[in-house]
């Protein structure tokens, strides 16, 4: 796991922002069908960051 113990608080928040920022939710439409919501699976690092923050992630739409 990533060790952020040696960095300052500002650097920690910047790193955390980069870690969680790439978790996406997309609305996809195939032809004339109704749109479907898709969500990216979090990486193990993202999952760990959200767990440490106490934020639950719902993957299923």
Could you explain how this protein is built, in words?
Strands 1-2 form a two-stranded antiparallel sheet. The chain is elongated. The protein is an alpha+beta fold and 61 residues long. It has helices spanning 9-20, 44-53, and strands spanning 25-28, 36-39. It contains two helices and two strands. It has one domain.
Short overview:
The protein is of the alpha+beta class.
Q: What layout of secondary structure does this protein have?
A:
Elements: H1 9-20, E1 25-28, E2 36-39, H2 44-53
Antiparallel strand pairs: 1-2
What is the overall silhouette? elongated
Q: What fraction of the residues are assigned to beta strands by DSSP?
A: 5-15%
Rg of Cα set = 15 Å
Mean pLDDT: 78
Tally of strands: 2
Q: How do the SSEs run, as a string of H and E?
A: HEEH
Number of helices: 2
Poorly predicted regions are none
Structural class: alpha+beta
Which key features would you list for this structure?
2 helices; 2 strands
